[in-house]
Design a protein that fits this description.
about 170 residues; alpha+beta; four-stranded mixed sheet; two-stranded antiparallel ribbon; 6 strands; extended
Length: about 170
């Protein structure tokens, strides 16, 4: 059985306003989660404002950067991101991995350990650098977006030695 309700124009706009407000509040709550980040405060904010790369309220890349890889067609680029072709952008088999005890590595040795995708650990002249770490099954704060390839999520935050530089 289908029930149709008649709603006045005024009540429709009230309902639309309430819905919009609830979505906005939910969105603000979502982006202020610790895993997403928060707005900088105090010393962090002062450091950002003094950066020569912070211009007109935003950081500027030193090199021009394209938002989408597929420059031919915006919609094809979005389609590639949302619906990747298995075997083309998603490996058909598990990626072979070998877990290394990062804490046991000689800190004076220059080396690179690749974790998969854009995540890796570097030691250069005694400086320990962690780049774009992903310590979950998803490279996204949303559990259903950007699932890690099988075999590339074998490290956890507890596996990391004390690092000097974190690049995200």
């Amino acid at each position: 059985m289908v029930i149709f309700m008649s709603i006045s124009r005024r009540n429709f706009f009230k309902l639309a306003g309430i819905t919009t407000a609830l979505l906005a509040i939910g969105g603000i709550g979502f982006i202020n989660q610790p895993k997403i980040g928060r707005s900088p405060k105090d010393d962090e904010l002062t450091k950002i404002l003094k950066s020569p790369h912070y211009v007109n309220g935003e950081f500027q890349n030193l090199e021009p950067t394209s938002v989408l890889v597929n420059k031919d067609n915006y919609y094809n680029g979005i389609k590639e991101i949302l619906f990747p072709t298995k075997g083309v952008t998603i490996p058909k088999e598990n990626i072979p991995t070998q877990k290394t005890d990062l804490k046991a590595l000689n800190p004076k040795e220059n080396l690179l350990v690749w974790f998969g995708h854009s995540s890796f650990y570097l030691q250069i002249d005694g400086i320990k650098i962690l780049v774009d770490p992903v310590f979950s099954d998803y490279a996204s704060p949303l559990f259903f977006i950007n699932k890690a390839f099988a075999g590339t999520n074998i490290y956890t935050a507890n596996d990391m030695p004390d690092i000097d530089v974190l690049i995200i």
